[in-house]
Amino acid sequence: MGMGDPVILAPFQRAICMQKWLMPITCHMFTYTLKDSARIWWNSQKAGSILNYQDLKAKFQSHFSQQKKFTKSHLAVHNIKQREGKRTRAFTTRYTDDTLQILGLHEDQRISGFVHGLRTRSLVEHLSTDLPSTYKGLMEKTYTWIEAREVATNGAPNDRRENFERSKNSS
């Protein structure tokens, strides 16, 4: 069980079936497989707080599941910025991936956050003239601009010359 990853429960489940263990034995044997953080978790459980193996398994998976998603607030969209020296295409992909994790994010907020996070002045100017009303439209217009720039510059990364001037005193 090592790190406590629930995926490792599968071999233990098979052992239960093969050995035909009774539930008290199953729980007892399960605890012998725990190490490191899983052992610490087990030791922190109050006596009588786990009713049976199914309860133990559910609590273990809930605590150690790597599939838990951190739910971000819609305000997090304003913290997604194009990093200094990073290409616009990379930012566009990262922004789209990051905003998909924000539940309930309105399309207007997604569009506004994208334009606000850009560091490439000419793209912001391009998008601002006739700003698309949908995120899909915004991405189509953005990728058209990116591809045109790549063709015009033979794929050379020249986004840096277009960056906004950021004053040291602005916050």
From TrEMBL:
Superkingdom to which the source organism belongs: Eukaryota
InterPro entries, per the entry: Retrotrans_gag_dom
Gene Ontology terms for molecular function: RNA-directed DNA polymerase activity
The entry's keywords: Nucleotidyltransferase, RNA-directed DNA polymerase, Transferase
Residue span(s) of domain Retrotransposon gag: 29-120
One of the Pfam families matching this protein, by short name: Retrotrans_gag
PANTHER family: CCHC-TYPE DOMAIN-CONTAINING PROTEIN, ELEMENT PROTEIN, PUTATIVE-RELATED
Protein name: Reverse transcriptase domain-containing protein
Taxonomic source organism: Tanacetum coccineum
